[in-house]
């Protein structure tokens, strides 16, 4: 008996991540289906009907090695914690790319959405990871070609954001690259990575987006990514935003004073 494709997709999308990992080895067609970006999106959306909280911490194991550990807290409908489980990094070696070669203290969380996490290291490599299935994808290198009319031009990774575009039903990574040489800053360039297409593309932006942002001061909320950063030409702090669907990047507020600021969500509103 041949199972109808739509029925198979529906059944597999309801399974736990642990079961999906076991079914990866059933046959090539099942492996291709389970690792297809469309199916990954559907499974993530179906799996997270309850509230989850993701915690990141660095621990020292029995051998003295430092490890990044993601702890997932699952809340039931009455808002009580129903389960807590750790997902250690680096991931085990396997057919998918893994994080075993990364220098763990240099690993930054750049964003998360629907159970996927965007990570980057200080070599500016970017990864999309699913802690529940322990799968990870290293994103392709940049497509930007920077002219070098007066010597070598370096690329500074200004900001990185990650979120879900509800209009096209796909996950996106956005990054701002600041070309520079010595004390000379060139206009910033913006790239978007589409998970489904597995490739980068450059977009044009209106206004000045030459910002440098720390990954600890950003957040994603209802289709828009927010960064708190420094406007490089002026040195002033500002909030930079990016709409995942409209693909529009702009600076919201410029602060006249320096202080300790942090972006957060309170009762569905950004502060």
UniProtKB/TrEMBL annotation:
Taxonomy, superkingdom: Eukaryota
UniProt-listed Pfam families: F-box-like, FBA_1
Domain F-box residue range list: 1-44
PANTHER family registered for this protein in UniProt: BNACNNG10540D PROTEIN, F-BOX PROTEIN CPR30-LIKE
NCBIfam families assigned: F_box_assoc_1
Name of this protein: Putative F-box/LRR-repeat/kelch-repeat protein
Organism listed in the record: Cucumis melo var. makuwa
Taxonomic lineage of the native organism: Eukaryota, Viridiplantae, Streptophyta, Embryophyta, Tracheophyta
